[in-house]
Amino acid sequence: MNELQSSQRLKDVRYEIRGALARRALELERQGYEIISLNIGNPGMFGFRTPETMRLAMIENLGSSEPYCNQKGIFPSREAVVMQQQDRGVMDVTAEHVFMGNGVSELIDLTLRALLNPGDEVLIPSPDYPLWTAATVLNGGRAVYYPCPEELQFNPDVDAIEASINANTRAIVVINPNNPTGAVYTRENLERIARLCARHDLVLFSDEIYDLMVYDDAEFIPMATLCKDTLCATFGGLSKVYRACGYRVGWVSFSGATERSDSYLTALDMLAALRLCSNVPGQWAVQTALGGYQSIHKLCAPGGRLYESRQVVIDAVERSRYMTLVPPRGSMYAFVGVDRRKIPHFDDEEFALDLLEQHRVLVAPGSSFNTPYRDHFRITTLPDEEQLRDVFERIESALTSFSSQPTKLEVI
Question: How many angstroms separate the Cα of 256 from the Cα of each of 35, 43, 189, 242?
Fold first, then answer.
């Protein structure tokens, strides 16, 4: 019997955040080892709770949650997104322009599927959140990366974006605040990207799942406020800011050139109908979440848990002999670099495996985020301060051991 083969469509698809390293971590846990898993931004696993008012909103509406809802979602949740956008100055959104999904992940897939023909290109940041690349490839498109260099504080190189645009380009993806780097993009860069989209008639996909998760003087600027002459798709959800990953509730709202995007929006409506609807109970929490007390601000302010954990990471890297860091200004991650002058043979995947096997810490190699370099790794900053101090002691120890290993050339 021949071995059953997977689809060829998957040959260029990667999702190492939950890939081979995560599977190895699970094997070690089954053997009785305690693993500190920092590969995923999963607030509930680190003691964060969803606001109680959101849980109550779900409970009170369970009786109304048993039938399928409209493929776009229940009206109160969609109208809550409209109100949020209007509060931000985006006045041309209606409930008909909002689609609820089983997390932002599902909506990334659906919005790209409704847009792409074979060979169409999507400009995606590098480092990226790899789901954007995977969804582009799986829907017949080609991912073209634009650099967000460390020397620009991981902001987009807009000149490089413009140089990458050609007749096959259909869309530009912006992830702000950024995963994996924690960058919060400048107004100037966002305005330039918006103008590029308008000039070349490109769809702008703005992934804003970490919108309110910013630190110090960082300012989050909604992309939709800058896009008037092109179609802008804004993605948000309950998973991060509201610590409700398991609810699987996300949304995408469309603004800008909606009046000339009927064909596309109708196609998206059909795809939404084919999956019937998104999780209904979780949608009842949206109105309460967006309209209620925004506890995320306290968490991200000095003295708040997210702020203080982030500071532990910054301080640990400053003390390190080997690590470098552009301090994250948003999100819940740190994209840590390793000084190649001190460890010339450093390789992110080899190091991540060694860190897991010898020190029981799971991180995501930087190259998992489609970078051309292999000297970074990403961690989530969700653990408490004590655990993060322990983690960085282990990482420093692992780097010290790694630095003393012979290079491949020396082994030969």
Answer: 46, 33, 19, 27
